[in-house]
Amino acid sequence: MDFSNESRVLHRCSAQIGNLLLRSLWHLVHFIISICNFTLDIANVLESYLISSGLLGRYKSLHVAKLRYLAIVIESEGAYQTSKIIELLQWLEAVGVKHVCLYDNDGRSSGFSLSLGSLGILKKSKDFILENLDGAILFQDAHENNVLLDQQHMTLEFVSFSDGKEAVAKAANVLFMKYSKSGVTDQNQKEKIFTESQMSEALKTVGSGGPELDLLLVYGPARCHLGFPAWRIKYTEIVHMGLLKSMNYGSLIKAIYKFTMVRQNYGKCSFDLHYKL
């Protein structure tokens, strides 16, 4: 009996010591990771400050010509911070970015029951934003009037979640009507397969083609860019910038600098995706 009691006591003590060691190890790992993250945050803040102050020479000369089309994605809550958005656009204008596409995911969480007429928060504020940017014009107006994109002033494009849904619906209808008029040549063919190039042509037909974007900066949660017209970001580099309220000039310049310093190989090989109707 004494031996059994001693064994149980020894087993209990061993289990308690093991649990204590595991818990201590977990806290130690958590502490090390926290220290590393804190150090990285401090380093990023310091680097952003040095970039903003102009003390890092390599960030002074940006090859902005490589950045033809830039997209800014802002979460729905951040899209109400109009003053922040205007400040961000003024920074971009100062460094020479000519075309900016603005998108917010307002309405995406409502699912596909959302009315296609939902404009999005940024679209509703576009007049105010344009008034506060000297010489800025809508990209649609510049395109219709054959104004070159390398002009002196910035062109802005406002895109909402409903734009993508409506464009896909219209493009699908164009393809369906075209297929219906052409007639069925094979009675055994139960489905029609369309290539990516045909889908792109249909999107252009309904006025929703738009230029493919080079760089997309996300101000918000990681998934808030979902719902952006997918055919325009096939080869787009996506960079997450944190929340809009925490934006800073140094981080913006760093993101653009990194993009311009990397050789872009997209579009070197061509292939077609296939869609079924």
Summarize the structure.
This protein is of the alpha/beta class and 277 residues long. Helices cover 46% and strands 13% of the residues. The radius of gyration is 26 Å and the shape is extended.
Overall outline: extended
Cα-to-Cα separation, first versus last residue: 79 Å
- The strand count comes to 8
What class, by secondary structure content? alpha/beta
H-E order: HEHEHHEHEHEHEEHE
Q: How are the strands ordered across the major sheet?
A: 3-4-2-1-6-7
Q: Mind summarizing the main beta sheet?
A: 6 strands, parallel
Classified in CATH, the superfamily of the largest domain is Decaprenyl diphosphate synthase-like
Point out poorly predicted stretches.
Answer: 109-117, 268-277
Using the coordinates shown, work out and report the CATH topology of the largest domain.
Undecaprenyl pyrophosphate synthetase
Walk me through the structure.
It comes from Gossypium anomalum. Its cofactor is Mg(2+). This is ditrans,polycis-polyprenyl diphosphate synthase [(2E,6E)-farnesyldiphosphate specific]. Belongs to the UPP synthase family. One of its GO terms (cellular component) is endoplasmic reticulum membrane. The longest helix is centred in the N-terminal third of the chain and has 52 residues, at 2-53. 25% of the residues are buried. It is built from 8 helices and 8 strands; from the N terminus they run αβαβααβαβαβαββαβ. It folds into 2 domains: 1-60; 64-276, 3-Layer(aba) Sandwich (Undecaprenyl pyrophosphate synthetase). Helices cover 46% and strands 13% of the residues. A 6-stranded parallel sheet has the order 3-4-2-1-6-7. With 277 residues, it is of the alpha/beta class. The protein is extended and about 95 Å long.
